Amino acid sequence: xxxxxxxxxxxxxxxxxxxxxxxxAMELCRTGQADDLVxxxxxxxCELVEEMHESQRKVDRLDYLIRQTKQx
Length: 72
Prior knowledge:
Layout: H1 3-14, H2 19-30, H3 34-71
Helix pairs in contact: 1-2
């Protein structure tokens, strides 16, 4: 494994990507499909951003409930 592929695999695991997705990314890398790998990584990034936004909505809701509780 090259330094880049090791870095790629470690990074994908570090962000919590499911093994089948890691395997798909590694296959794209191994076969030299850089454009497809970039698209794949961007899709995964978008999904993480959506998860982050969903978590933020939950935090906002809890903040609202905390404020309401303090007022009562």
